[in-house]
Design goal:
The complex is a heterodimer of chains A (about 130) and B (about 140). With about 130 residues, chain A is mainly α. Chain A contains five helices and no strands. Chain A has one domain: 3 helical TM bundles of succinate and fumarate reductases, CATH 1.20.1300. The longest helix of chain A is centred in the last third of the chain and has 31 residues. Chain B is an all-alpha fold and about 140 residues long. Chain B has one domain: 3 helical TM bundles of succinate and fumarate reductases. In chain B, about 80% of the residues lie in helices and about 0% in strands. Chain B is built from five helices and no strands. Chain B is extended and about 65 Å long. Chain B starts with a helix and ends with a helix. The chains are: A mainly alpha (about 130), B mainly alpha (about 140). The interface between A and B is medium-sized, with 33 and 31 residues.
Chain lengths: ~130, ~140
């Protein structure tokens, strides 16, 4: 008994992190949210086909539209980040390249997400 | 080392991959679901570009509009809209499977056909509507 640690402290931190289904579940929850949100964007783009700059920015500047756009951005970006993570884990096997690809995935998702949010917020506050 | 030489002389059989299997609709849809997912991932950069241009001002927006209304821009947007609908229906298919239903071969085939053929129809409807709002007809 050279080890002074208790059996509990040795066991702590081992085994399941109880997060096994979190990735799957968030993929599905964001997928569900994406359906009405993307349909809204597609519908909005259809009815604004050929609209000039003033009409389009007036629409995007509407606070309610801004709310939906921000929800869409957050949900879609989160969803695609989770999705590409699985693709990376499936096809990239080298530890270093896999780690770099996973980090690049996070950077890309966050950059696009922040860019979209800044644009939407500017359009809303410009009204 | 001698084991290595032996392995190269007589390669061990590998597990079968896509070039071995006979292609099925469910298999094509599975691959397309992932492919459209990756395409939509890249496509968000276009969404960000469009929103940033709109937020930046009329000149920047005009540049994006000149690209999106060109034939190649339209082609990309058409593909984008199809990818969106295809991925959405692929997701709905997974929602059905998540409930534990639709795994028998008959339903798998029915669901596969709906997933394959409804998105192109929806895509065309969306573009016909868009062009009618544009005043094309």
């Amino acid at each position: 008994m050279s080890d002074m640690r208790t059996p509990l402290s040795r066991a702590r931190g081992l085994g399941s992190a109880k997060k096994g289904t979190h990735h799957f579940w968030m993929q599905r929850v964001t997928a569900l949210a994406n359906i009405p949100l993307t349909l809204f964007l597609v519908g909005a783009l259809v009815v604004h086909a050929g609209a000039d700059y003033a009409t389009m920015t007036a629409f995007l500047g509407n606070p309610l539209v801004g709310v939906v756009m921000l929800l869409l951005i957050v949900s879609a970006i989160y969803h695609m980040r989770l999705g590409l993570q699985v693709v990376i884990e499936d096809y990239i096997h080298g530890e270093a390249s896999k780690l770099l690809a996973l980090i690049a995935n996070n950077f890309f998702a966050l950059t696009i997400g922040v860019a979209c949010c800044v644009a939407v917020l500017k359009l809303v506050t410009a009204q | 080392m001698s084991d290595q030489v032996e392995t190269n002389k007589h390669p061990r059989p590998l597990s079968p991959h896509i070039q071995i299997y006979r292609w099925t609709l469910t298999m094509v849809l599975s691959i397309l679901h992932r492919a459209t997912g990756v395409a939509l991932y890249a496509g968000t950069a276009l969404l960000a570009g469009w929103l940033l241009a709109a937020a930046s001002g009329e000149e920047a927006y005009a540049v994006v509009q000149s690209i999106s209304t060109a034939w190649y821009g339209r082609l990309v947007l058409f593909g984008y809209s199809w990818a969106l609908f295809h991925h959405m229906f692929g997701g709905l298919r997974h929602f059905i499977w998540d409930t534990g239903r639709g795994f028998d071969l008959r339903h798998v085939e029915i669901i596969a056909r709906v997933t394959a053929f409804v998105p192109p129809v929806l895509t065309i409807i969306v573009w016909v509507l868009a062009y009618s709002y544009l005043g094309a007809f």
